[in-house]
Hints:
single chain; alpha/beta; 9-stranded mixed β-sheet; two-stranded antiparallel ribbon
Amino acid sequence: MKVDGVSPNGVQQHETTTVVLDADYPWSTPTFYLRSDFPRDLPHLQPDPSGTPPRPCLVDADQREYFFQFGLIEAGIFHLIQQLVLWLQHAAEGNLIDSEQGWEPTLRHNLASLLMIDAETCRAMVDRRGGFRVFRSWFYRLGPDDASLTNGASVMLHVGTEIIPLKRGNMNLLGFRRNVNGTSGNTVGCLVWPDKQPDGTPFISDRYMPETVTTLADLRQRADELGCGRGFRDFLDLLEQCFQGYFLEQPIPISVILCARRPCHLIGSSSQIELLPYVVDISLKQNRSSVFAAAENEPASPTMQLDVVNPALITRVTGTSAAGPITLLGCGSVGSKLGMHLARSGVEIHVISDRGVLLPHNLI
């Protein structure tokens, strides 16, 4: 590679990096940018639009906290540069992902929109045949109605676990109410997973793809790349049919969660299924030709994902062994703390019994 001056994946022997210090430095961490044409099909890159220089993810934590631990002096910069050198070395060698550790999920930090979902329930629905499911969901859209999801508007979505049919006349799926800074209401979310290969084997997405989706057309292409194209197109067709003759003046955000089947399990999970969530507005104004106001150019935005809290998630995160449901007898100064820590460990507490009165010393 040194003889050629470049690695097979496009990392050069000499890489130019731009370091930006904000006006409040050193109270803010430096930002590192690679050259604009740096290869983007690598893990550990922040999900920035393709028109901006790529930013590497240098530490396995919050970079601001990592930088601050060195006491607001030059040592923080030196350590970040050292991390950058290691990052570029691993990138050139193709070792940014350790298959023994697991598949590195696509970075989705610091995105404007947020989606909450029961990830394990969704993963359990994925089979090798391919398909999609539509869930009842709720949204909060922040920003003016005429602002797009990629410029001036953001969304928080909660995707439920209730599967609902998309059929004409089912108008109660959508609704909104006006708030001070935007709108909130009911909507739908769609989970799409890949079809099987022509030979019957599962569709495996073993190539790391940069998160560059900005339009509905981009989202269609990404669905095709992940083997989810048929299910996604079927969902869009049903969406058009379901809300034909239904009118709303305000845009309603819907979520699309594409499932990528990876060649190995995800880091921190036993599953090979990576969930890639997106949000796009539908517009139900009169005299429309589509539920998407800008058709294929309708803005589509990747979203951050949070798992809905449930006992299985808490048990996995805390590393505790699963325990059966318990009954808590006595909720005093000891019992109340036992109950709190058991709950935070994912243990189901079916009954809490104490005939006493809560007194201040119980809280100490």
